Amino acid sequence: MIPDEERLLLRQTFNQTADTYQRARPEYPAELFDTLIAAAGLVPGDRLLEVGCATGKATLPLARRGFRITCIELGPELAAAASRNLAGLSAEVVQGRFEDWEPAPGDEFSLVFAATAWHWIDPDLRYRAAWRALRPEGHLAFWGATHVVPDGGDPFFRELQEVYDEIGEGLPSDSIWPRPGELAVHSAEIEASGLFQVTLVRHFDWEQVYDAEGYIALLETFSGHIAMADWQRERLYGEIRRRLAQRPDGTLRRHWGAALHVARRRS
What we know:
- Helix content is 34%, strand content 25%.
- It is of the alpha/beta class.
- Strands 1, 2, 3, 4, 5, 6, 7 and 8 form an eight-stranded mixed β-sheet that branches.
């Protein structure tokens, strides 16, 4: 778990990615949204509250399905980008911290959700804040797009670890490379809050192909890479370009995984 001080600093780095986040980050599978809607019993017109919308990567698919969405986003540049991306849809973006946000009197949401953002929210406050915003029997949902490595997957990432080690950003010796379907599940944490009952956990996996510049653009949206020194990024990105240039098609295959958690609000 990231220490509180480091988490607070790193979560602010994403505001620097407002120009590239929407383009560089992967799309979530349509099946994930279909599963979420069914599990939470949502119908078009329901009000949803999103925690940490960034540029609206997960907001857009749900807004296009007819839901009314209020988005809370910490970064002012990200919030402005989300407002532009969501123009013309039933969505509003509020710039600020979810931990400080209070619903207006009488406001109740059918769903509170977070896409690759829940782990950045203060663990001592997030479940209580979500519970307060929900109507009776409303739902909380969260998931995160994470690198998974299937058997027979692209060896590029393991091979590149020698460069991360060289620049002082190597993985801890006990790090695990999760395979599809092996992402951490947070059911126990949800139940321990005493505020929610887990109703569904489902894994989703997909693959995306990147050329060198596309992959570097993706890395530029990751907090750890944003926080690197210039010389570290130059060395790493230069090596990515060099190694991919040696491949016949100049690309790599990255597998993504997401563990969708859905939980019902307890009264």
